[in-house]
Amino acid sequence: QLQLQESGPGLVRPSETLSVICTVSNGSISGGSDYWAWIRQPPGKGLEWIGSSYYTGSSYWNPPLKSRVIMSVDTSNNQFSMRLTSVTAADTAMYYCARVVKGVTGHFDRWGPGILVTVSS
Amino acid sequence: SHGLTQPPSVSVSPGQTASISCSGERLGDRYVSWYQQRPGQSPVLVIYHDSRRPPGIPDRISGSNSGNTATLTVSGTQSMDEADYYCQAWDSSTVVFGGGTKLTVL
Hints:
The complex is a heterodimer. Chain A contains no helices and eleven strands.
C-alpha cells in the first residue's frame, strides 16, 4: 500500500528556512484526483493544516501561513516538498505529509510517520 | 473560515459507549472526517464522509453529522481506543481541524 516518508533537518535556526521533503512509495504522485498535504503538530498541541498541492502545482494554503509557505511537487522523483521561511520557536512541531483523496476537499487517508523539527539557535 | 469545537476530554468505562462531539456553523452541510492519534503515533483516519469507515476500522466506531454537530461514537470501548481524536472539515477553501479530544478509558 502507498507509503509516505518525511525527511529533512531536525534543527533549524530562527529566521532561517525550514525544508521538508515527502517521498511517496508504492504509488504514483501523478494523475488521479489526489492532492498532497502538509500538516503540523506543535508538541502537546493539536493538528494544524499547512497546505495541499496537486501534482500540477495547483495549491491551497492555510491563510495565516500562506505568506511564508512554498510548496512544490517533483513528479520525476515521486516527491513533494514544503519550505517555511522566517521561522521562529513557534514553528517547532512534528511535520506530517499526507495524501488527500478525492480532491482537495477530501480526507487524509495516508500519513507519514512525521519529522520533528526544532527551531532553536 | 469557521472553527470546529471539540470537548478537551471524554472519559468512559471499558465496554461502555463514548461519544465525542464536533461543533461548527452549518457543519451538517459539509463532510466531516475523524482521525485517531495514539501517543507517539501519526493520526489514522477512522471515519470519512461523516459516517464511512476505511478498511480495517472496526464497526464499533461510527460517525454521524447533522445540523451544527458531528459525533464520533465508540461502542464497547476497549483500552486500545484510548487516544486523541480530531474532527476535520473543509471550509472556505481551507482545511479545518477541531482542537482534539482525549478519550480516556478508565
